[in-house]
Amino acid sequence: MAPFVVDDEPKLHALLALITKRTGAGQDQLMFVDLEGVNLGRTGTIAIMQLLMPPSPVVYLVDVHRLGAKAFGLTTADGTSLQTALESPDIFKVFFDIRNDSGALHAHFGVNVAGIIDLQVVEYATRNPRGRFVNGLAKCIEKDLPHNPAWSLVKDKGRRLFAPEVGGRYEVFLERPLRDEILEYCEQDVTLMPRLLAAYGERLQAGVAAQLQGIVDGRIRLSKTDTFNGKGRHMAVGPRLTPSRYRDVSASRELELVRSPQLVHLCRLDDGCIEDLTDQLATVQINAGEATASAQGTSSLTAVARTVVPAAR
């Protein structure tokens, strides 16, 4: 499945309309999010934001490098923007290690994330024994999902392009058009995050879950301070958790959802949802094209509609 690149205002409007549709009143919707960039954090840059909303398997790659502040500031008539979605406590976003992502979003675009499920923290909480250190996403995938040679191949191809220790350079995330290897790299990890969350949710104990939101909120607060350093060995040290038998408090709404039987359904990806989402985006894109054509005295609806449908590989 090819990712959908959101690199102009009409496409971003279409994505925001989709988010509004999926996260309306009374709807439970998880959004899986990841960021890529150069020295990602408070002092670096955000190049791409990956977004996945099950049950659709389509990954949306928001081109932050090209859109700039509009990526988070562009707002629909009903008040929806990527900033409001990321800041809403009622829309649950799943990140893997929120710290550098939160720091970058806050420092560069003034985004104060809320409603966050930190997959790294959840994984750490389910271990027995837990050990001292948290795991990275790659280790979680290797340890907790069936072996997938194709995943390893895509990962290695991407790392050779961006990882300095193997001859790459992070600036590859700023090149346009994005290379196929980078598109595939950006897409695949966020696609596997729902399966990890579903697996960890089954193992998460109530007494431990009640402690996790405070840990995640603390990570977010720390990431926004001027003294936060998002690089170094200290980032690998796991959070402190007390024995669950000493805790008798309710978990946050985010963590209650993680422990609920509903989680498996919310994490399931369904190829049958692709056409509906593509049609939704195309419809909004055509409407945006009509407005643009009317203002400019031109008619380019066919061309506009074609740009919204991602080409299959």
Automatic annotation (TrEMBL):
Gene3D superfamilies: Ribonuclease H-like superfamily/Ribonuclease H (3.30.420.10). GO terms for biological process: nucleobase-containing compound metabolic process. Coiled coil: none annotated. InterPro entries: 3'-5'_exonuclease_dom, RNaseH-like_sf, RNaseH_sf. Residues 33-196 form the 3'-5' exonuclease domain. GO terms for molecular function: 3'-5' exonuclease activity; nucleic acid binding. This is 3'-5' exonuclease domain-containing protein. It comes from Cladophialophora immunda.
